[in-house]
Design goal:
Elements: H1 3-14, E1 19-21, H2 25-34, E2 39-40, E3 46-48, E4 61-64, E5 80-82, H3 84-99, E6 103-110, E7 118-124, H4 127-136, H5 142-146, E8 152-157, H6 164-167, E9 174-178, E10 183-187, H7 193-206, E11 213-221, E12 227-231, H8 238-242, E13 248-251, E14 254-258, E15 261-264, E16 268-272, H9 282-287, E17 293-295, E18 298-299, E19 306-307, E20 318-322, E21 334-335, E22 338-345, E23 355-358, H10 360-369, E24 371-374, E25 387-390, H11 403-417, E26 420-425, E27 428-429, E28 437-438, H12 441-452, E29 461-463, E30 470-472, H13 485-488, H14 492-517
Parallel strand pairs: 1-6, 3-17, 4-5, 4-9, 7-8, 8-10, 12-22, 22-26
Antiparallel strand pairs: 2-3, 6-7, 9-10, 11-12, 11-13, 11-14, 14-15, 15-21, 16-20, 17-20, 18-19, 23-26, 24-25, 27-28, 29-30
Helix pairs in contact: 1-3, 2-4, 10-11
Length: 518
Amino acid sequence: MAASTVTRSMHSLTEGPHVHRNLSTPQLVEAAIARGEASLASNGALVALTGARTGRSPRDKFIVEDDTTRDTVHWGKVNQPFPPAKFDALLDRVMRHMAERDLYVMDLAAGADPAYRLPITVVCEYAWHALFVKQLFIRPTAAELASHVAEFTVIAAPEFEAVPERDGTRSGTFILADFTRKIILIGGTKYAGEMKKSIFGVMNYLLPNRDVFPMHCSANIGADGNTALFFGLSGTGKTTLSADPARRLIGDDEHGWSPNGIFNFEGGCYAKCIDLTEEKEPQIYHAIRFGSVLENVVIDAASGEPDYSDVRYTENTRAAYPIDFIANAAIPGVGNHPKNVLFLTADAFGVLPPIARLNPEQAMYHFLSGYTAKLAGTEAGLGSEPVPEFSTCFASPFLPLAPRVYAEMLGRRMREHNVSVWLVNTGWTGGAFGTGRRMSLPHTRAMVNAALAGELAHVEYVTEEAFGLSIPTSCPGVPSELLNPRNAWADKAAYDAQARALAAKFQDNFRRFEVKKQ
């Protein structure tokens, strides 16, 4: 498709009587309810179901391979190539599909630091999708909207199903990124997180060339101005642990580390809701109100109350809300260079300690390893059991460039700013998943707070055998016997065997990584 044809086609998606552009939150809520897309919960949140796709579909994600990407993208299982001609044909079909429907268009941006901001336009088939992206991305001012020119356009057509034999996709679902035309094309899935993560992938592609380290992490800042970063995949606690009443929230998921400091890519939060309670997570609980979007949360038919413990649709229930719904959010979402970096992992084997201090070599090892467990529902096709996973840089599904690009940027930033690095296990203790128990959130918070406050700088440490990790022997607010995971297992020999087995998995994974690096 020629550039002029693409321009004319894009114009048809953003202009015309069937296009509703930059509607207000009440207007989008009203449209979603009137169209039967969603309903209102008793707390005022808009509630939508995503059908069969209740999480991301990574196997259906592709990047167009052309002169722009051929020698820059790290091709492989994650970054699958897609032919330009197939993209053109599919784009044309989606355009014709969208031309027959009311569309909801939002002009937004990614990047809280104006120096690195990416203007985007999102074209939605659903009004509730438009509300989702409005609350998740950065909302331009009226003056900024007047001069808004999108650098990337996201087209979300959940009711358009691809035909794999014709379109070159793997299934009826597709998430395609074209870095030449600067278009993200999404179809066959109602899961709104695909829009959010697609732009994250764009930022991960563009920013390293501008000396910005893009990160899959949350960030907050203390009263003393000290910033902390929390790396981790879905379900490891980034949103929960960074939402701390004693610290201001910069953002819960995606950030850049520039020569100037930290900045949020987004203007909202996308929190997991499984077993959410006011007592355990008051900030998130109270952020879910009118203007928020709940995905796949069960609502009581009589009272309209959300039941966050009901997982009949998925365990990956979600809430999307503007970051200013968090009482102590840092607006705009920027912060100083961090003093502490925390790697969060949900260890399904119950082996890793609740907190460990990493030396620089260990920090790079665990960053490149990116160990965690995929939790049920975060991706299509996962069953009820967690699946151990090594996700390079805690973000491999979203990294278009080679892992070494991101690892080298982290190493340089750590050296420049003398950063302390911690490994925090928010997963299981006393046994593997199914026999052990999940780490206590109050205890995890106490350990994180102690690390950020410098209270773990002068306590005694012991070194565990399997990984050589330094474990504190004491921590304010935490029983000492919980700090060493071996103590939590009734069968010490079983722990030792499990620890050796997991350490071997790390070594095997890192060996494969080193082979790829050569």
